[in-house]
Amino acid sequence: MEGETHVPWYPSALDFDALHRDYPPPPDYFRTTRVISRDELRAKQETRFAKTIERGWEIPFFQRHWKNAGIAPGDIRGLDDLARIPPYTVFDIRDSIARAPPFGDFMGLSPADGKRMPLVFHTSGGTTGTPRPMLYSPQDRQVMGILGGRRFAMAGVKPGDLVMITYAAGLWNGAIAKPGRANARPAWSGVSTTSSGRQVNARPASVIASWASGGVRQRRAP
Length: 222
Prior knowledge:
Strand content: 5-15%
CATH architecture: 3-Layer(aba) Sandwich
CATH class: Alpha Beta
Number of strands: 4
Distance between the termini: 44 Å
Largest sheet: 2 strands, antiparallel
Strand order of the largest sheet: 1-2
CATH topology: Rossmann fold
Shape: globular
Number of domains: 1
């Protein structure tokens, strides 16, 4: 229909079959990635590292940070060059946000990307200052979930097990720890360590981003 709004539905945002081939979740993980040879593992790491560096050169924050350290495109060729990449700190992230408020230029994503794919919005805990915004793509979220599932599986957790989340109830921990289809029961008191003032300051950005992403949902234990 002419003039109809396009909705970036989550199920169509990813090729889930390809995702699971690249990042096998358990139990497939134990029959595939977990048992490949060291040479196969190194080759996979080299390929993904090269793609990560290529993507980094497309993001203003890393362009600036790496150039300031004297690194040019093509200098980082593989994992053997890893030590040449300069680390960054929370102060660099804060500078990025100050340069391009309110989200900064360090993520490679902005709320505008919500027109083409669903985004999830979180903030840091705000322990040392104003909570920093973070946007996650469907690929980000699914890979994080698969890696988390691997850790649970290696600890003996199986589908249908009851998992207790013992994190504090901040926006970050409450939402990021929610595993979607898992049978999870938070055990928090409902009290966040982040001050109310910081939450109010982060609220406008949260409202804007949540419209595109479907919101960040938290639930207390009954």
